[in-house]
Structures are given as C-alpha cells and as structure tokens.
Amino acid sequence: MRYLEFAASDDGLDRGSWEAMASVRAGERDAALAEAEGLLAAAEHEAPGPRGPEEDGGVWDAALHEQAEAGGWVTITLTLTGPWEWGESLLRRQSPPDEA
After folding, report:
1. Are 70 and 4 in contact (CB under 8 A)?
2. Labelling 67: which of 25, 37, 74, 94 has CA 20 to 30 A away?
3. Domain of 85?
4. Are 74 and 24 in contact (CB under 8 A)?
5. Distance between CA atoms of 54 and 72, rounded to whole angstroms?
C-alpha cells in the first residue's frame, strides 16, 4: 500500500479489526481514495460471508470515510472487521512484498 497505514487488533475470538488511514494533500486525494476503494473491492470480492454488523448476521463489515482538513489536507479512513485469517490474508495479498 502506498498511502494507507494499518493498525490491526485481534479480539482473541478469531475476529479482527483493521484500521487504515491516509492523510494526504488534496492533490493526492484521488490516488489515496482509489487505494482504499481498491482494498474495499478486494474485500467484497473475497468476502467470507454476508456483509453487515455481526449482530445482524454479518460475517464482515467495512466503513470508508473521507474528511477535508485544514491547510488542504484530506484524511481517508477505512475500517474492516471480520475473521482474523481472512483479513490478514487479504492485506498480505494487497500489499507488495518489502523491497530489499
């Protein structure tokens, strides 16, 4: 990922939450948003079951937000929740290997 930075948390019950954020200048907004939307599309394509809140029968869920900030900055956040192995595998496949 070029723009998004992730923080992951595991609830200890094989479910996880992945919070991604990009804070970019307005000129990079489209590229950062495209990266987040691409990850969301991959999550939908590889969905482990129905999308929605767990209490409504959902297996995974996501929220994508964008906010204009002072000084010409834009913050984009993407939150994914779902089975731990699914989320970790999804992020591994979407992130290029580190270059030496």
Report:
1. no
2. 94
3. 5-94
4. yes
5. 37
Question: What's the total number of domains in the chain?
Answer: 1
pLDDT in tens, 33-84: 999 999 999 999 999 999 999 999 999 999 999 999 999 999 999 999 999 9
Is there a contact between 16 and 83 (Cβ–Cβ < 8 Å)?
Answer: yes
Find the helix or strand (DSSP H, E) in which 36 lies: helix 29-45
pLDDT-derived band of residue 100, with 50, 70 and 90 as boundaries? Answer: very low
Q: Which amino acid is at 90?
A: L
Residue 100 is assigned to a structural domain of this protein: no
In a domain, 63, yes or no: yes
What per-residue confidence (pLDDT) applies to 99? 41
- 57 within some domain: yes
Query: Is residue 59 a part of any domain in this protein?
Result: yes
